[in-house]
Amino acid sequence: MNSAVPIIFIPGILSSQLYLPENGKKIWLSPLFLKMPDRMEITSPLTVKNNETDQQTLPGAKREKGMMMKELFLIEKLCSAFPDRPVYYFSYDWRSCKKAAIKLLEQIAYLKKQGYEKADVICHSMGGLVLSSYIGRSGLDFFRKIICLAVPFEGSPLLEKLAVTGDIHSIPNAIAETFKLSKEMLIEYPAAADLLPSAEYLSVYPLYRKGIPMTSEETESYLAELMPKTFAAGRKFQRSLHRNAYKTLLDYPNSYFGIGVGKETTQTISLEDDGEIEECIDMSGDKDVPEYSATMCGRVEKLGFKRFRRFDARHSELLRAGEVLDWVIEILDSD
Fold first, then answer.
1. Where do the H-state alpha helices sit in the chain?
2. pTM of the predicted model, to two decimals?
3. Which DSSP string corresponds to 220-266?
4. Which of 8, 223, 225, 327 has CB 3.0 to 4.6 Å from 121, enough for a Cys bridge?
5. Closest by Cα among 67, 104, 69, 102 to 88
6. What is the rounded CA–CA span in Å between residue 102 and residue 227?
């Protein structure tokens, strides 16, 4: 048995580097993608590296930093605050939440073979859906503490906007446009449908057509037309999280939730003429994820201040803001 408690970090969409399985060359966040864009299509198998590498064993320059170094501050803070604890950056193929959850099974199996009986886990954005999917399959037995940061439990209207307009800026990272991920490619990713606003979210913030709310049946039919290959599976995935994971997370006394608020955030959209849209925006969110989604339609708020915190921060800022990082360290350091 290994007495140390490792820390696992699960990043969000686009934040894991992906590699070609036949030669190990990096395709995502690499100029190679510009030469071989078809290799990022969902039909092309890709792999990840270094999930079994303890970040503590690497010099700072060699540690996983995530896309555009967004995760650097968190990884460095964890390594600095807990020098005697292993820190793992869990990379996964973010094109599919379901496949990523299966990959997490492999990661947990590896840690168990190393003699670890428990681990603390931090997840950001879509990483929280990956973790939730794992919990729905395998439960909470291996986890000691769980920290969810800016998780779109009920999806994000930005994915509606992407499906309707093809605006790549709807994906929370401008680099998606730089690397020319097309709308056609993105909407065939299962994860894109997994991240659509859930049926429960849409019951409060419906999709509109020329300012008139669409019925749930009209909305479901419309979204299914936009994502014909992935929509049904996405809805099935969301229902499985509601049925098998979310209540478990809420009831677990050592799960914690941090969300960003105070930023202009799209709550829903209205379909106008000629493919144009009007965005309904307010300040209750982190710009990418509305507060209503990050709180599981308000359920998380009922947990109280001990387990739920709001931070005046944008989506990616929850990975580097001092107040957030201090809160994370305090949770991991407490009995």
1. 31-35, 72-81, 97-113, 127-138, 157-165, 175-178, 183-186, 190-194, 199-204, 216-226, 231-244, 246-251, 291-294, 322-333
2. 0.96
3. HHHHHHHSTTTHHHHHHHHHHHHHHTHHHHHH-TTEEEEEEESS-EE
4. 8
5. 104
6. 24
